[in-house]
Design a protein that fits this description.
Helix 1 packs antiparallel against helix 2. By secondary structure, this protein is mainly α. The chain contains 2 helices and no strands. This is Rop-like protein.
Length: about 70
């Protein structure tokens, strides 16, 4: 598997993780004030997931010369 193919596979996995984190945050917001204590943890996980996804997409773009 080439470097770009490996990176695309990583991006696909990170995208799924980011979408799950987004849904978890959405679900939490709909249930408030229940579980309000977990807002920072869920938001932090969502932030990290999207930061990783953005970085990998930028890396792929550099590899592809764009």
């Amino acid at each position: 598997m080439s470097g770009t193919e490996t990176l695309k596979a990583e991006i696909k996995k990170l995208s799924a993780q980011a979408m799950q984190a987004k849904m978890d945050l959405h679900d939490l917001s709909e249930e408030l004030p229940v579980n309000w204590e977990s807002i920072l943890e869920v938001a932090g996980r969502t932030h990290s997931a999207y930061a990783s996804l953005t970085a990998k997409r930028a890396e792929l773009k550099r590899l592809e010369g764009g």
